[in-house]
Design a protein that fits this description.
With 250 residues, this protein is of the alpha/beta class. It has one domain: Vaccinia Virus protein VP39 (Rossmann fold). The chain contains nine helices and ten strands. Strands 5-6-2-1-7-8-10-9 form an eight-stranded mixed sheet. The longest helix has 13 residues. The chain starts with a helix and ends with a strand.
């Protein structure tokens, strides 16, 4: 982090009380090596509660495909540009299977609005924990259903997530598709898509990964992280959309 970035962060801390706890915890990522799953994300830029991009020493990225709705065309081994002139290594892997990445390779993992697109969240968290070193940190951001098209859906239970984990539910899983199609409110958010287009996109989820398989609140996030072997350090709702959780590998 440059002197100017440090000054901007300090001003943000003073002016925005809602950011303060997260800004304090962002020091966990200072001069550390990280991995981002499903990025890059605006949430980790400067002036956010977790300006991790600026603090980090380096960061690699993981995306599920060579082409995604959010990042466009990608290539394994290419530069992962995540902040200004900072770049790392681009991996093409499932979030649940970080093939070829050795145990304990990273000081931290970050993921923003990605885990809800995973059919087996606990399996993903277990894999992220595997690539973390001792006391490695995790910054996890998930959507608040009250401000998304998931508004009418119920919060997933921890028991369901555990069942998915024990059954090794694959990313081809279509269990929630009918619920997603029936209950998604397409008038919320920035979706410019018809109901029929949304239905077709849902059925093609393995290609596009647009479906929110599961719906989270802060209580579920806490229980899920603890089940997966993380110690929750802080969580909060932020800016009417984001559920923020910072934890450490036990």
């Amino acid at each position: 982090m440059t002197l100017l970035e440090s000054i901007i962060t300090s001003i943000s801390y003073i002016k925005h009380p809602a950011k303060r706890k997260c800004l304090q915890l962002s020091f966990l990522f200072k001069n550390k090596k990280g991995l981002e799953v499903g990025g890059p994300s605006a949430f980790f830029h400067l002036k956010t509660p977790l300006p991790i991009y600026a603090w980090s020493q380096s960061m690699d990225g993981v995306n599920f495909s060579n082409s995604t709705l959010w990042e466009g065309a990608l290539q394994q081994g290419a530069h992962y540009f995540y902040y200004k002139n900072k770049k790392g290594f681009q991996f093409i892997h499932e979030a649940t299977q970080l093939t070829g990445i050795p145990n304990g390779s990273y000081d931290f993992v970050v993921s923003c609005h990605s885990l809800e697109h995973t059919a087996n969240p606990i399996k993903a968290l277990m894999e992220w924990k595997r690539v973390l070193g001792d006391k490695g940190s995790l910054a996890l951001i998930l959507p608040d259903k009250n401000y998304t098209f998931d508004l009418q859906r119920s919060i997933t239970t921890l028991e369901h997530l555990i069942e998915d984990y024990k059954n090794d539910t694959p990313e081809t899983d279509a269990t929630h598709f009918e619920e997603v199609i029936a209950l998604s409110d397409l008038t919320i958010g920035n979706l410019t898509i018809t109901k029929e287009e949304f239905k077709n996109r849902t059925y093609r989820n393995f290609e596009n990964r647009a479906v929110h398989h599961h719906v989270f609140d802060l209580a579920l996030i806490k229980d899920m992280l603890e089940y997966a072997g993380f110690e929750l350090l802080h969580q909060q709702a932020y800016s009417n959309l984001h559920l923020v959780a910072v934890s450490q590998k036990k």
